Amino acid sequence: MVYSGMGPDYRVLVRRARKLAQQYFLVYQEPIPTGQLVQRVASVMQEYTQSGGVRPFGVSLLIAGWDEDHPYLFQSDPSGAYFAWKATAMGKNYVNGKTFLEKRYNNDLELEDAIHTAIFDTEGEL
């Protein structure tokens, strides 16, 4: 899980996500599926948009996971909406990042190339 936005808000959500994952594991004796974790964290974010006395979380999240031999990547915004992606970027320079990924990404990308692409994009060498 990575974020763009306010660090303290991110830490609150990470703690909540860890707690949700731990509760799931205690009940089912297996890791929480990525989609369920994203749905539950996004639900917490959405609740804060409608609750009195609290402000919405000021973060967007990227949550990645591996379930049933498939990788998953989700993005959640401060409203609690979430989206599945094959590749995406967020933050200050996200437009250039997405353009870079659109040029480099394809379904046949090898692991080494994917790692190089992610590092290259993360370092901002677009």
TrEMBL record:
Q: Which GO terms describe its biological process?
A: proteolysis involved in protein catabolic process
> Is DNA-binding one of the keywords UniProt gives this record?
no
Q: Which domain of life is it from?
A: Eukaryota
Taken from the UniProt entry, a GO cellular component term is: proteasome core complex, alpha-subunit complex
Give the keywords, sorted: Proteasome
| Entry keyword Thylakoid | no
One Pfam family for this entry, by name?
Proteasome
Q: Write out the similarity annotation.
A: Belongs to the peptidase T1A family.
Protein name, per record: Proteasome subunit alpha type
